[in-house]
Specification:
The chain has 323 residues and is an alpha+beta fold. The chain has three domains: 100 residues, no CATH class; 135 residues, Sandwich (Jelly Rolls), CATH 2.60.120.1440; 72 residues, Phage tail protein beta-alpha-beta fold (3-Layer(bab) Sandwich), CATH 3.55.50. It has nine helices and 18 strands. Strands 1, 2, 3, 4, 5, 6, 7, 8, 9, 10, 11, 12 and 13 form a 13-stranded mixed β-sheet that branches. Strand 17 and strand 18 form a beta hairpin.
Length: 323
């Protein structure tokens, strides 16, 4: 079946599902949807378009639809689809936007940021301040109606400028973090996302397969949430404000932290490769405060706690069992 027919069928069922349809019609719709993957793709595309429409400024959307329909009334396409008014309007909007609305959806500012072993601080055009930790990668895009950051890995402290007309969204794996104006830290380390709120309220959502959002939690000052790469909550707790993003002051704080995790955190602040030739147990922990530049002091502490020896050759630090 060609794409045009599939799109027409998707439009029909999309319009039907906006009304009160019978159980028999619902069964027919489910059968059609499950017949072929292209049916699901076409239907989900209309859902995305509807979501996009809902996010637009109402006045702008009304003007856009009016102009689109004025031109569409001159075509057979409009006559064919007018009985499915909502779906038809969406499709007309798609075609019209290709030619008239591109600039509206294009970012007015974008930047690709990546740090090495040094931290970085930037201020965006809207006044939002980003403090970026070492070995962090993110993309920033500012639009007319929203502000979006994609965090690939690393740690960022956000101080978001208040702008109710342009919510600020951070995407980390399958987690969406949405705010209007607040201060909070987002970590994406080994595909585990951690959000800690310093002030304000932060909305946490899971990104579903069709790109819709499922609200998971609303965090306020002093709250912390940990999620896996699929957007599943692993832990929800509180955190002292002074412990949020201590790396900004070049300090790392460990509180009964697994030794292997502490080593991994320290590895972010060195270009040396760290090889672990000793099997640390789950019960082997470390507590303390270190400057991120004091990796030697950190390893000295480990040698007093555990039977290990540290050896450095060129650009490699080896952690071996003490002989």
């Amino acid at each position: 079946m060609n794409n045009k027919i599939v799109e027409e069928q998707a439009s029909y069922w999309f319009a039907c599902n906006k009304e009160n349809i019978t159980l028999e019609e619902k069964q027919k719709f489910r059968k059609w949807l499950d017949e072929d993957n292209t049916h699901k793709q076409a239907y989900n595309y209309l859902i995305k378009i509807e979501s996009l429409c809902n996010s637009l400024d109402e006045k702008y959307l009304d003007n856009l639809i009016d102009e689109a329909q004025k031109g569409a009334k001159k075509t057979k396409f409009f006559e064919y689809t007018k009985k499915y008014s909502f779906a038809a309007t969406l499709l007309v909007l798609i075609f019209f936007s290709i030619f008239q609305g591109v600039n509206y959806y294009s970012p007015i500012y974008e930047s690709n940021l990546k740090t090495n072993i040094l931290t970085n601080q930037i201020t965006l055009l809207d006044g939002t301040k980003l403090e970026i930790d070492a070995k962090t990668k993110l993309d920033v895009k500012l639009y007319n109606k929203q502000r979006v950051v994609k965090l690939y890995y690393g740690q960022v402290m956000f101080d978001v400028a208040k702008d109710k007309s342009r919510p600020f969204n951070i995407i980390s794996e399958k987690t969406n973090i949405r705010v209007v104006g607040t201060a909070f830290e987002v970590k994406n380390l080994d595909k585990i996302t951690t959000i800690s709120v310093k002030e304000g309220v932060v909305k946490i959502s899971k990104i579903m397969e069709n790109d819709t959002l499922q609200t998971l939690a609303l965090l306020s000052k002093g709250e912390k949430i940990i999620l896996d790469e699929y957007g599943k909550i692993l832990n929800l707790s509180t955190i002292p404000i002074e412990d949020i993003a201590t790396w900004k002051s070049n300090y790392l704080i460990f509180d009964n932290t697994l030794v292997k995790d502490a080593i991994k955190i320290f590895s972010r602040y060195t270009n040396d490769k760290i090889k672990i030739n000793y099997e640390f147990q789950e019960k082997q922990l470390i507590t303390g405060q270190f400057k991120n530049s004091q990796i030697e002091k950190f390893f000295d502490s480990l040698t007093t706690l555990y039977p290990i020896a540290i050896e450095k050759k060129e650009n490699t630090i080896s952690i071996n069992k003490k002989q």
